[in-house]
């Protein structure tokens, strides 16, 4: 039998627990951990939601503004409001071979299910070869009505090793990499791909009518619903480069990339932005490169940044140096160095709300981002703050 004094102790204990929760719920980090969403925030104007105007514009690691999830958009996807909404001139860009079909279908299906069923952006598929009918039919079968699918072949000169490259030297470089077991060190097509992504994709005629792109690769994962339009977010906030994962580059693939970059900025100091992100890519004021880069298999970017004067001149310089073939320069360090040097650091945006995996790393959104996006990744499985990631450095750099 409970005695009266025992019941009193129980009441006091329950009261203390309740008070603790009440006080703790005021703390944003506590709310993040338990997925707290304030009451009365379950529905919102879908057009406003789609515009992304609800997004916090404060520090990038701050708690997100309390808005609802994508249910509203699912319900409203065929409404006039959504159909006639303001859009960016933007498209997904997918470079692929016919043999990448299954992986492409997998990535596109997720993009459709998580975002594009309401956003209705176009897809531009690019290939060094011609896309076959099966590739075209099966991709179109997944892409919803309202989005165009365009298929383009890449110009011979934009893809293949230029004639003026000294093949003997390039071959010696490849053999050295094979000896050193550098990933894709043997491969000429891989080098073509890296050079194309560095200097040519944004010049393809199928992209001429677009200002923004989202690069998508086969076999990636998109873990979360996206209930706002990241292209509009780029446009409205003046972002020029968006990323989710960052890491260190294999030094053996870029032995002379930084030396060439230093030569370029000595010749063209006018292109280096005064509020650049150099401290994120160099620990000694630009003397050496610390190998940090944004992982470019995911990019949401401004095509006009790559088409602009600074990047055009930088790419020309790198192209002449020949390192895409004599070494194995990746488009990831090339894009990242350019973004870090030629942009205002505030024009580079970490899309920490977009859950994404490209083997073997993933970014899984944390706290309220995860809850709102109905993400399907384990928040504990997150590369961001592991030793090989450069994201902690970014957060630290941006908080100064
Ligand atoms: N058309 C075409 N596309 C290619 C070729 N090589 C790579 N790609 C595409 O270029 C992108 C990058 O190639 P990946 O092989 O994924 O390179 P990676 O991401 O560094 O390496 P993985 O770990 O293999 O994914 C992908 O979208 C590929 O489909 C090629 O020879 N032709
Ligand atoms: Mg890949």
From TrEMBL:
Origin organism lineage: Eukaryota, Fungi, Dikarya, Basidiomycota, Agaricomycotina
Pfam families xref list: Glyco_transf_15 (PF01793)
Species in which this protein is naturally found: Cutaneotrichosporon spelunceum
Family of this protein: Belongs to the glycosyltransferase 15 family.
Superkingdom in the source lineage: Eukaryota
Statement: the UniProt record of this protein carries the keyword Transferase: yes
GO cellular-component term (any): membrane
Name recorded for this polypeptide: Glycosyltransferase family 15 protein
Signal peptide: none
Keyword Transport listed: no
One BP term from GO: protein N-linked glycosylation
The entry's keywords: Transferase
Stored SUPFAM superfamilies: Nucleotide-diphospho-sugar transferases
Annotated GO MF terms: alpha-1,2-mannosyltransferase activity
Region ranges (Disordered): 45-68
Catalytic residues (positions): 299 (nucleophile)
Gene3D superfamilies membership: Spore Coat Polysaccharide Biosynthesis Protein SpsA, Chain A
